[in-house]
Specification:
Blueprint (H helix, E strand, L loop, with lengths): L8 E6 L6 E8 L5 E8 L5 E6 L7 E2 L7 E5 L6 E5 L7 H12 L7 E6 L2 E7 L3 H13 L9 H12 L3 E11 L4 E8 L6 E4 L4 E2 H8 L15
Helix pairs in contact: 1-4, 2-3
């Protein structure tokens, strides 16, 4: 995964044979939930790889990521999958350009970037972290907590849980691979459309980043005219 990809870790896990120890691939997503890579079988007997939240759940322990596959954490809900490695269409410099602009935003909501095929998609958190802190900060200071937990710990746990769900808001689509020209699209949430709408003609990515990313988290973003 591009925006939230972490290196898979190895942990000790008891194998099926007594005295035999197998190293199991596992991954912790952005809300701190750990998933374990397992192997099962399809109805035709072919191997099927999947992640389980249970360390000793169904399937066989997998000690390495299969060749040609990668771990992918879905930006919308933090679900973890094993997927085939896709050819890289978006360059590292293009991703860095978008990532730098998003990080510069001063917003109480959070943002994730996901690169897939010809698209660079920006997701916005459903929860407003700043609003959560304003609402619960004083409340947690006067609420009995379990032993060893501070109000800051409780707030961090609350924010972490709220960090699970994101919504796709803006994306840049590569339409000319030779000249590296992109279009910008925003998601329209009107019931009659409920889809991506184009908001500009092809431009270089830097121009689009400077024009549209600063609108994220503002009312002006939804007033952006579409073509």
């Amino acid at each position: 995964m591009q925006p939230t990809q972490k290196a898979a870790r190895l942990i000790s896990s008891v194998g099926h044979c007594i005295g035999k120890e197998t190293m199991a691939v596992h991954y912790t997503n952005r809300i701190g939930k750990m998933y374990y890579l397992r192997e099962g079988k399809t109805k035709t007997g072919k191997p099927r790889f999947f992640f389980s939240a249970q360390q000793h759940g169904k399937g066989e322990v997998v000690d390495r990521i299969p060749d040609g596959y990668e771990i992918y954490e879905h930006p919308e809900n933090a679900q973890v999958f094993l997927r085939k490695i896709r050819p890289q269409v978006i360059t590292d410099l293009e991703k860095l350009l978008v990532n730098k602009a998003v990080k510069a935003l001063k917003r109480s909501k959070r943002y994730l970037i996901d690169c897939k095929d010809e698209n660079i998609t920006i997701y916005e958190s459903s929860a407003d972290v700043g609003e959560l802190k304003n609402i619960f900060s004083d409340f947690l200071k006067h609420t009995p907590l379990r032993a060893g937990m501070t109000a800051d710990d409780a707030m961090n746990a609350l924010v972490n849980a709220a960090n699970q769900n994101y919504t796709a808001m803006l994306r840049f689509r590569l339409v000319d691979k030779e000249r590296r020209k992109f279009t910008a699209e925003r998601f329209c949430f009107r019931g009659a459309i409920d889809d991506w709408i184009n908001i500009c003609s092809p431009e270089n990515l830097k121009t689009l980043v400077e024009r549209y990313i600063e609108l994220l988290g503002t009312d002006s973003f939804f007033d952006t005219p579409f073509l």
